[in-house]
Amino acid sequence: MGSYSSHVSKIEDLQGIIQETGFSKAHVCRLYDRFEGLDQNKAGQLSREDFQRIGELAVNPLGDRIINAFFPDGNQTLDFRSFIRILACFRPVTVDKSAGPNSPEPINSRSNKLRFAFQLYDQDRDGKISRDELFQVLRMMLEAQVTDDQLDSITDRTIQEADLDGDGAISFEEFRKSLENVNLEHKMSIRFLQ
Amino acid sequence: MSRCSIWIGILLFELLTRASLFAETISEPKAAARTSNDSDRWESVSSNRPESKAIQPVWKPEQEENQSVAAALKVFSLDYHHVQVPFEITLWIMLASLAKIGFHLYIKLPSIVPESCLLIIVGLIMGGIIYGVNGRSAPVMSTDIFFLYLLPPIVLDAGYFMPSRPFFENIGTILWYAVVGTMWNVFGIGLSLYGICQIESFGLKDISLLYNLLFGSLIAAVDPVAVLSVFEEIHVNEQLHILVFGESLLNDAVTVVLYKLFKTFCTMPSIGMSDVLFGIIKFFLVGLGGLLVGVTYGIIAALTTRFTENIRVIEPLFVFLYSYLSYLTAEMFQFSGIVAIIACSMSMKRYVEANISQKSHTTIKYFMKMWSSVSETLIFIFLGVSTIGDKHEWSWPYVCFTMIFCLVWRAVGVIFLTFVVNKFRVNVVTRKDQFIIAYGGLRGAICFSLVFLLPNFPQKKLFTTATIVVIFFTVFVQGMTIKPLVELLEVKRTSQAAPTVSEQIHIRFLDHLLAGIEDICGHWGQYYWKDRFENFNTKYLNKVFIREQHLSKSSIVVLYQKLEKKHAIELAEAGQLAGAPSLASLHDEHTAEVSKSPISPEQLDNIQELLIRNLYRIRQTTQSYSRHTLPQGKNSNQAKEIFLRRQESLLKDDGVLNLIQRRSICFAGESQKKGKLARSLTVGGYGGNKNNSADQSPKLPKSMSVTPQQPSITEWINEEEPENLQSSDENDINQKGNDED
Fold first, then answer.
1. Left, alpha or beta for B560 (phi > 0: left; psi -120 to 50: alpha)?
2. How far apart are CA B320 and CA B328, in angstroms?
3. What gap in Å lies between CA B135 and CA B123, rounded to an integer?
4. Given this model, what pLDDT does residue B652 score?
5. Is A170 helix (H, G, I), strand (E, B) or coil?
6. What residue ranges of chain A have pLDDT lower than 50?
7. For the complex shown, is ipTM > 0.85?
8. Rounded distance, CA B121 to CA A150, Å?
C-alpha cells in the first residue's frame, strides 16, 4: 500500500481533510490508494468513466444515480477532497464529546446521511421528490418484473403514505419522517470506514 | 374465581378417586397382580377426566365375573392393553391443553407468572400424585421422546419464522456468543466446580475433573425452549431478541460435541493430545455437517414444491417431512440436529413460499404453531413430573455453587465477549442489552434430558439434583423477574409500527446505495455479499426452484398488493358494514385470540394492516375535503389532477371489483414476506394486548397532518379498530382462496 510518508506528501492538506471528515490518517491514505486505483489515466482527478469502469456498479440499479451524486452541479471531474468528503458521509456515527454545542454538524450525522439519500431521489434539486422521480427510482429498482400499472399504483401509495401536507410530493421533512423507525445510523454506515 | 374453584374441584376429585382405587387394588390381590401396573397408570392419567368415574365401577364387576366364570362369553369386555400407548399419549396432551386453558381463564395470572412456570407446577402436582400412588416416578419422559419427538417441532417453528434479515445481519455476533460463549461457560463452570470439589470439608473429593467438565458441558447451554417461552412475553427490541434466541439455537452444536466428547473421555482410561485434537475437528464437523444436511434437504424440498401444482392438499406435508428428515439424518450422523433443521427451514422457506398456495401456507403456519405449542407445554409438564422421584441426592455446597457459578460465569462471559465484539459492530450492544443477554440465559429441558442420558455412575444423582435446581431457578426466578427488570431498565422495546410501502422501498433503496458505495470504496462488506447473493438468486436459483408463473415476486410488490387488497376489501365492507352484533362477536373472538401467544405474529400483522387500512380511510375522506374544496396556495397543475383522478377511479365503486380482478393474476403464489417487515417476532400474550392496540391508534394522527376537523373520525377508529381485527384476515384468506383454487 505504500508508506504513509509518500502519501502525506501527495495528499494536499491532509490535516484539513482529517479535521473535516473525521477519518483517521490510515483511512485517508487507504482511500487515497483507492482513488489512485480508480484513476486509470493518472489525471489526478476522477471522471465519470472511471466510475463506470467499476464492474459491480454497472449492474447496480442505482449505479448511475450514485455516480451522479459524486459529480454535483454538472462537474465532470472529481478531486480527492470531494471524493473523500462524500464518502465521509457513510462513516459510522460516533458521539464526539470534544465538539462543543456550536460546532458544525459532522458530515456523518444522521441528518446528512438522510440528505444524501434524499438527493439521490431528487434529481432536479427542487427540494421535493416528485411523483415522477419516485416512479423512476421504482422502475430502476423493480426492473422488468412489474408492469407500469402496478408501478403507478405503488408510487401513488408511497406518496400517500409519506405525504403529510398533501402536495403530492415528498419533501425532506416528510422523507425524514417516513424513515424515523429505521435505524439509519446503522443502515447507512460502512464499518470499513470507521 | 368460580373457574378456579372448578379446577381445584377437579384436582381434589382426582386425588379421591386415586386414593379409593389404590385401596381397592390392595384388597384384590389377584387382579392387582395381574394388571397392577396397567391399572395404576391408567388411573394416574385418566383421573383428570370426569368420565373416568363412569368406567371404574364397570371395571370391577367385570373382574369379579372373570374370577368366578372364566369360560363365559364376555359381552362387555375391556382391553386396556390394546390402546394403552396412544390412549396415554392423548391423555397427556389433553392434560397439557386443559392446563393451558385453565391459566388463561384467570386472566391476570399469565402477566405475573410466565406460562412455563405454571406448567412446571402442574407437572409437579401430577408427578407428586403419580409418585404418591405408585411409589415410583412416572416413566414419561425418556431422552428419546424428548429429542426425537418433542424438540423438533419447536425448533422447526423457530427456524421457519425466523426473520432472516436481522438474523444474518447479526450472524457474526450470534456465532461468537454461541460458540465462544458456550465454551467459556463450560470450561469456567467445570473448572471452578472442580476447584470446589477439591475443598476437603465439602466431601466431594471423589468427583474427578472430567466429570465436572461433563457436568459443566450440559449445564452451560442456554435452552431455546425456555428462552422462547419467556422472551415471547416481554417484547424486547428485535436485535436483542435475535441475539439471545439465535445464540440459544446455535449453541446446540457446541453442546453436542462437548457433551459427547467428555462422556467418551470419562470412559477412556487415558486421554492423549490426539483425542483433544479430534474433539476440535469433531466440533467443526458437527456444525458444518448439520448445516450441509439441512441445506441439502431444504433444496430438495424447494424443488419438490415446484411440482405440486396439482396436488395442493399435501403441500404442507412436504415442509414438515423434509424438515423432520433433515433432523433425523443429522442425528443419525451424530451431527447437530438443531442446526440442520434450522438450515433446512431457512433455506427452503423462500422458494416454498413462492410455490405453494395461500391455503397451504396458512395450514403450515397453524400446524407448526400448534405442534410447537403442544410440544413446549408437554416438555414443561414432563419436567415437573420427572422431578418427583427418588433419584435425588442433595449436597448443599455442590448445588449452591453450581448455581452461583452458572450466573457468574455467564455474566462475566457476556461482558467480556461483548467488549470484544463491539469493536467490530456498528450497532453496539449496550449495557442494558448485555444485562438482558446475561440474565436471559435460561436453562431448560435440554440440560435435563442430557443429564438423564448420562451413564450410571455414582454421582449421577447429585448431578441430576443440581441440574433440576438450576433449571427451576432460572425458569422460575429469572423467568418471573425478567419482565419487571426489562421495564425497570427501560430496555428498548419493539416499535409496534405498521409496515409501510415507503419504508420498504427506502430500505431497499438504501441497500442498493450502500452496495454501490462499498463497490466504490473497493470494500466487500455485507451489502456487497448480499447484493451478489441476490443477483445470483434471481438469475439462477429462482428459475430452478420456483414455478414459471410465480416468478417476479419482489417483496415491495407483494406488500403493496397485500395492503391494496385489504383496502379494497375494507371498502367493500364499508358498503355493507352492519351494526353492533357482528362487531361484538368479532371483539370476543379477538380478545380470546389475543392471549394465545404462539399466534401473535399474526396479530401484529393484523394490527398493522388494520392501521394501514384506517390510515387509508382517513386519507380518502380528507382528500375530498382538502383537494376539491380547499384549494392550496399552489396551482393545481396537470399532474396533480391526473393523480387525483387515478386515486378516485382506483378506489371507488365497482372499481373495487375491477381492482380485485386486475390484481388476481398477480395474486397467484403470493408469498408471505412478513418476516422482512415485522419489527417484532411476537405481540400479545401477556394479556395486555388491548392496551397495545389502544396505544397504537393515537399514532394515527401523529403520522398524518390531519386538518382540525379530524378528531371525531379518529375517535371512531379507536373504538372500531380492535373489533375488525379478526374479520380482515378471514376475509383475506377467503378472498385468496377464491382466487387461487
1. alpha
2. 12
3. 17
4. 57
5. strand
6. 1-2
7. yes
8. 55
Per-residue pLDDT tens for B667-716?
A: 333 333 333 333 333 333 333 333 433 343 333 333 333 344 433 333 33
Residues from chain B that touch A117, judged by Cβ atoms under 8 A, are 506, 509-510, 513
Contact A24, A4 (CB under 8 A): no
The residue with cell 405454571 is B118
**Residue B596 — pLDDT band, cuts 50, 70, 90?**
very low
b/e burial code for range B201-214 (CB count within 10 A of at least 16 → b): eeebeebeebbbbb
Q: Which pTM was predicted?
A: 0.65
Which chain B residues contact residue A192 at CB under 8 A?
Answer: 518, 521, 523, 525
Which one of B421, B512, B627 makes the best mutation probe of the A interface by having the most chain A beta carbons within 10 Å?
A: B512
Indicate whether B460 pLDDT > 80.
yes
Separation of alpha carbons A172 and B130, rounded Å = 69
Q: Which A residues 8-27 touch B at CB under 8 Å?
A: none
Kindly report the number of other CB atoms within 10 A of residue B495's CB atom: 11
What is the average per-residue pLDDT within B214-227?
Answer: 87
Instruction: Pick B432 or B108 by higher pLDDT.
Output: B432
pLDDT value at B172 more than 50: yes
**Look-up: residue for cell 433440576?**
B468
B461 Cα distance to chain centroid: 32
Which 8-state DSSP code applies to residue A103?
S
Pairing of strands A77-78, A46-47: antiparallel
Q: What are phi and psi of B9, to 5 degrees?
A: -60, -45
